Amino acid sequence: MALWIQAQQLKGDALHQMQALYGQHFPIEVRHYLAQWIESQPWDAIDVEKQQEEFKAKRLLESLIQELQRKAEHQMGEDGFLLKIKLGHYASQLKSAYDPCPMELVRCIKHILYTEQRLVQEASNVSSPGVGLTDGTPQKYQQINQAFEELRVMTQDTENDLRKLQHSQEYFIIQYQESLRIQAQLSSLASLPPAERVQRETSLQSRKATLEAWLTREANTLQKYRQDLAEKQQRTLALLRKQQTVIVDDELIQWKRRQQLAGNGGPAEGSLDILQSWCEKLADMIWQNRQQIRRVEHLTQQLPIPGPTEELLKELNSTVTDVISALVTSTFIIEKQPPQVLKTQTKFAATVRLLVGGKLNVHMNPPQVKATIINEQQAKALLKNENTRNDSSGEILNNNCVMEYHQTTGTLSAHFRNMSLKRIKRSDRRGAESVTEEKFTVLFESQFSVGGNELMFHVKTLSLPVVVIVHGSQDNNATATVLWDNAFSEPGRVPFVVPDKVTWPQLCEALNMKYKSEVQSDRGLSEENLVFLAQKAFSSSSNNPEDYRNMTMTWSQFNRESLPGRNFTFWQWFDGVIELMKKHLKAHWNDGAILGFLNKQQAQDMLLSKPNGTFLLRFSDSEIGGITIAWVAENPNKAGERMVWNLMPFTTKDFSIRSLADRISDLNHLLFLYPNQPKDEVFSRYCTPPNSKAVGDGYVKPEIKQVVKVDDPMLDAEGEFDLEETMDMARQVEEFLRQPSEPQWSGQQSYQCGKKND
């Protein structure tokens, strides 16, 4: 409940902002009485853009209603009676509001908790500026907030000066009208008798001279006021531009970079809420300054006084329009990217968001967003503002979507949930480029006005590069193109230029990021693993990591040229390892049971120093997505000599029949996992429990077991055991037993399959 306690201590504008979070959509009383429960729930674990997670939101809504009802039931006494009725009413109200759309409740509460946390952090920073960072808020954030406070003061200062100018000008006009009235009186004196005329004329001329002198001085003063005000607004706009550069060109670009790296398995890019709050503050202040400049223009038109102010005001008006235009176009972003490997005829989703849409009331006339797929050349032409004649490189179904405003969070976004790429038009390929190296992008564009049609905007944004495939077999190579682009592209590049070669440490970082993400493990690639990969990539035998620090790897070496003596590339081999690990061996990698990145000679050197029966697991050099068991045992053909045996690699197909743990359990001559762990301690909890009970039709479920005879003549001189025939038979049996037909193997005890009581 710590956050709610701190939120209640907010003061001034921060307190008003916090109170504004609540209303009929979520009463503040519910926040108060269920504070501890609300703050302990996993709201962030639910992705509100994924419809399949709605059941989690439904469960949280039901729990919230139950907690409210429980709290109501425990109220006692006269005051408790009224509270009991109130809480019961809120329970019914929330159920009625969110039962049809539980995701909106999650969205609402996430927004409330985030905003409260931000307000508490900002208040803490203001109250103790001399102290270091508080609550982990970066110093940059403090600088941004301080700049906003400076802008607020400057904008308020110009507002005060503008009012002063307006009052002075209004008084000037009154006095000017008075001078005109005196002049009219002087003109009418001709009809008076001479004596009276002279007396009145002397008095009026004196008043006229005094007033004209005052008007002359006041006109100069007004001109100075206008000039000073315009110069102040010039300074404010300069600071606004600087603040906008920090937020849009630094922070937002960094968010987009994190989003791109997240496509390679990097950390999530983080919430856009704080960026939106900054952009909204910018929009608010820019708009206030724009209105001030327009009011000054109106005053100058109302009372023209020759001077340099008019030109300065024109310049200010042009500048403020440029600033607001840059902000609006820059904050039309893709919150959820389309998949970067995009298969035709397959449904996909994306979300675009206008960060300043709520603040500028764009939602009052909700704009429509259109999605189009374009190729690299069309993307280049678009960024050069060349006329592309609405060209596209394919047809996307369900490619139009109206932006929706979520009042609880203040977000304006368009959710494309059911897009599908019907067809793709490919360009002529260059040199050795394959179809899985060709990059496209999804263009999102919209048109809307702000300020009562004062300003019209045509906004566009491009997705991260996508590679279009038509068959799952292309996924491997397409992923390589995406990984290289995400990892090594430079901000602000020409679409979609990437370096042809990178340093080995750069590539290691990208491979490690991808591996940890796909295998869902904190255990990444060690320095020894990376040395092994370097040896494979560069056909080197050096074990010294320093030897690879300054080496570079080209795209061709990465995924065009096959490894020496193999029919696959470096990436294809590495991706095969990832696929095997994430589908079948994730738990064993996390346990540290798989060394993996070793060659046959390294395995032999390690095992020969250990007792017989010691084994290890390493990835196959010769087969994509293969893993082999190497173990040390006596040489049956030479007494007293020991040798290392290697099983033919297992692949995903093998593990879909029988798991690694079960296979290791089956092989009795495997005793210790390298260096000295009894195998049962490591693998037994993953083994399939024995099942001897009869199934419904009276048959006992069959089992397939791994069998290896060390003295089998199928072992070659190098200790390589060919399991191909054995595994083919196992697969045939497994596939046969899966068929619904009457079993034909019931009498064959060699496969442990027999009819009960036979």
TrEMBL record:
GO cellular component terms attached to this protein's record: cytosol; nucleus
Subcellular location: Cytoplasm; Nucleus
Coiled coil: 215-242
UniProt keyword list: Activator, Coiled coil, Cytoplasm, DNA-binding, Nucleus, Phosphoprotein, SH2 domain, Transcription, Transcription regulation
Any one GO molecular-function label of the UniProt entry: DNA binding
GO biological process, one term: anatomical structure morphogenesis
InterPro entries (UniProt xref): p53-like_TF_DNA-bd_sf, SH2, SH2_dom_sf, STAT, STAT5_CC, STAT5a/5b_DBD, STAT_linker, STAT_N_sf
Biased composition (Polar residues): 741-752
Disordered: annotated span: 737-758
Main location group: cytoplasm
Pfam entry (one): STAT_int
Domain SH2 per the UniProt entry, residue ranges: 589-690
Family of this protein: Belongs to the transcription factor STAT family.
Protein name as catalogued: Signal transducer and activator of transcription
Gene source species: Pygocentrus nattereri
